[in-house]
């Protein structure tokens, strides 16, 4: 279920303050964040966020197409290593 339109999108306050301060100063530093549930806002476009995936921080460059999605969607938590082959099981 999506969030109520009356409430608006959820953006972590600390993350929003850091982005606003960097936009005001014109900085382009990497911001480390654990706020995977935050929604990407237009103010974040052009910044690089290091999103924690449970083990390490994954750098994510925010582009225009990401606005409206969640930050955690771009830092995968599971590593897909492919399906096992049948040749390997026989030996």
- Unreliable stretches, pLDDT < 50, 5 or more residues? none
Helix/strand class: alpha+beta
Query: Roughly how many Å is the radius of gyration?
Result: 17 Å
Q: Could you describe the largest sheet, including whether it forms a barrel?
A: 3 strands, mixed
Indicate the overall shape. elongated
Element-level helix/strand string: HEEEH
Number of helix segments? 2
List the strand order in the largest sheet: 1-2-3
Helix content bin: 10-25%
Strand percent estimate: 15-25%
Give the total of beta strands.
3
Distance, first to last CA = 48 Å
* Average pLDDT over all residues: 92
Describe this structure in words.
The chain is an alpha+beta fold. It is 20% helix and 15% strand. It is built from 2 helices and 3 strands, in the order H-E-E-E-H. It has a 3-stranded mixed β-sheet with strand order 1-2-3, covered by helices on one side. The model has no long low-confidence stretch (mean pLDDT 92).
Q: What are its keywords?
A:
15% strand; alpha+beta; 3 strands; 91 residues; three-stranded mixed sheet
Fold topology:
Layout: H1 13-25, E1 30-33, E2 48-52, E3 57-61, H2 86-90
In short:
It is built from two helices and three strands, in the order αβββα. With 91 residues, it is α+β, with helices and mostly antiparallel strands. It has a three-stranded mixed sheet, covered by helices on one side.
């Amino acid at each position: 279920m999506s969030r109520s339109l009356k409430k608006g999108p959820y953006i972590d306050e600390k993350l929003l303050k850091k982005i606003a301060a960097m936009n005001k100063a014109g900085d382009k530093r990497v911001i480390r964040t654990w706020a995977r549930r935050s929604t990407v806002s237009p103010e974040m476009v052009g910044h690089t966020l290091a999103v924690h995936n449970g083990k390490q921080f994954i750098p994510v460059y925010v582009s225009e197409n990401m606005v409206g999605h969640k930050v955690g969607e771009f830092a995968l938590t599971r590593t897909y290593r492919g399906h096992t082959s049948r040749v390997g099981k026989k030996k």
